[in-house]
Amino acid sequence: MWLLSILLAALSGLIGGYLLGWFVGRQEAGEPTPAPGTLTLPEAKKSPDVPPASPEAENSSEAVRKPEPQPPSGNNAEAPIKIIAAPEAALKAFLSAPTWQERAKHSLLSENTANQMKSYYSQMPDGAVKVMRIKLNDSHGEEGEEPTFYSYLVSTETHAEGFPVAVVRTQEGWRVDWGSFVEFEDDHFSRFAGGRGGDTGKFHLLVRMTNFAAPAIKGYSGFRIDPPMPGRDRYAFAPTDSDLERILRAAATPGHPASAVLELKRHSVEGGKNWLEITSIVAPNWWPESE
């Protein structure tokens, strides 16, 4: 019996030493020891493209990644908006107006001009102007401030060379000077100089010192005048040694014509001819008065 007890004790010591050595070896190797009552799960692989959602966003729509909007392409792409300066936009609205009533809305002093337009277009064709080209020509304003007047060169089917049209800034917006526009568009000066209409008129003209001998008219000095379109120049005369003649001569230096609004009187002579007298300077420039 004593021999059997010795054998059982030796076997128990051998098994205990083996288990103790296995346990110590695992600890020295650094293997983690699971906590009681838990299971060790493999770490989940994370997608490199989608960041993990925050706890606050897990139960909200923010947890779902929305596709980023793409720029339109092909036929669905919107064309870029062409920005037009306000004065030019007003001019285009004026020119494209189908009736004088619509044109009056874009005209300078439209309330005062409406009756003149109504009377004028009762005898002249009305409708939109067929424009070939619009080009900025000049601007005017107080020094250091934005311009209050713009001049555009407008080319039409009847005037391919173009003529200036003034656009003025008012409290209601930009407005077009209808008076000078219709004067150039319908060639009022040529009609007047050719003997049509009344014997007096006011016109936007360039005044030049003549390089040629003007027809001799006793008591008068000659100047060359023409509207801002080619082939329409004429001689006009102011009383010699008058204030009017001195002002015109001082303004129209050689090679530098003066632009002014002149009042003219047409005198008839024998043989169906006529000559033009400058009776006054209505305005020393072409810029219209604002409202």
From TrEMBL:
Organism domain of life: Bacteria
Region (Disordered): 32-78
Protein name: Lipoprotein
Lineage: Bacteria, Pseudomonadati, Verrucomicrobiota, Verrucomicrobiia, Verrucomicrobiales
